[in-house]
Amino acid sequence: MKTIKTLIALACAASFTANAEVRINGFANLVAGMTSSDDSLYGYDDKISFSEESLFAIQISGDVNDKVTATGQLVARGSDDYDPDFEWAYLTYQATDNLSISAGRLRLPLFRYSSSLDVGYSYHWVAPPESVYDVAFNNLDGIRLDYSNYAGDWEYNIQLAAGTYENENDVFVIEGKDVLAATVEATYEYFKVRAVIGRSKSTFSVFQLEPVFAQLEQVLPPGLFGNLQSDNDTGQFIGLGLEVDKFDWFISGEITSVDTPDTYIKEDIAYYVTAGMRVGKFTPSITYQVKESDDDPKFVDQISQLPVALQAQLYGVQSLFDDDETTITLGLRYDYDTNIALKADVTKLEDDLNEANDATLVRFAVNYVF
Amino acid sequence: MLAKHFVLSLALTFFSVSSFADVVVIVHPSNSATLSAKNVQRIFLGKEKKFPDGKETIPVNQISDAAPRGTFDSNVLGRSTTQVSAYWSKLVFTGKGIPPKEVDNDSAMIEIVANNPNAIGYIDSSAVNSSVKVIPVN
Lengths: 370, 138
Fold this sequence. Notes:
A: 370 residues, 16-stranded antiparallel beta barrel, globular, B: 138 residues, alpha/beta, 5-stranded mixed β-sheet, 5 helices
């Protein structure tokens, strides 16, 4: 609420200056999907749904003065009953032609497509590969520095971000403090490489697990309980991305590791490789994704001294978020117009830990920008 | 069969572009800048904001339906017009850039460039007149 007021105030302030310009842009994704019978994937089931990934967004930005721009993005997500929410609201200070500083609520630069995650029109997929992109939080309350320049024919961009994040839904709540992230991206003609490293002190709580942890606190040695519980523990995020885009065809991939050593959750490694061709208005593509957690249980030395039944329970808790899945997606994008894209894809997921999670999903999408 | 058809239509598109359209980059007559193709590309993608002499650049595009736009996008920017708009949608919605203003046709482009020392645009070579200066792009 407070951000909305600030934003309105900023917009008004902007509109009173002589050369003020308020820009309104928007984008929309209408996505319909359904799985094969009795399956579920990414929130879809075997009855067609239009709301899981559909969204409408309006962005308002205005020049406060020559150097400062205010930007707000109001997003209404189908998964949230199209209840609009200011997901971004920030001020950008253009310090030089190469350096800008933004402060407020903004996108955390974790992935190659982080910044345009919601703008379906900006990529060839119906949705960016979930195995990699499905993280518990995407937005940062804080500050971000963007620096871009050239070194010969190399073009590079450095982003530094610092702040806090918070995300709550029906299943969990996550809070991060002391977030620091650094990203370097370098482009040489058709080749692009990107690296990111980030860390934060995070606290992650799954509502259904709260009674379990309350009970464990009673029976476990405090040291082990502290190790298992997620409470202000340092987590690390590392990512690497590569891309070759020769216009007629492209191939790219990203690999990420998410690890918070002092919690019950194991390290997760995820990657995808995607390749496609541009044939006139059509972009057929194939994407292969893998998400896998570390096989070995944590804190074995401490746990092995406990009663066997308790050991089993602790290893059980540790494996709740285990992943071992591969996904293949065949997709097609059709550029209907310079601001409208139509897409369709088929996704097949295989879960090596639990066959019951295997699923096939078909999606259709319309992406619009204005 | 379908693929063959696309390849054919694509080939025809390229053919028509190279044989009929000759698009030239224009600036205000007072502008003495010499630019490489790379400079022009960077200016129109919002990556370079100044001419070599330090003067601010104001790139101006033609609308996506105008013939010179497609030629310019594929020859100079090396992308289709759709890809260029996808590129800009990324920048716009991340607060990192504002796409160039668009004009309807060659004559509107000439008018804007002739009246603005910072402007840079492009038109079909047949539309050039003395109110603007064509700059060679190497």
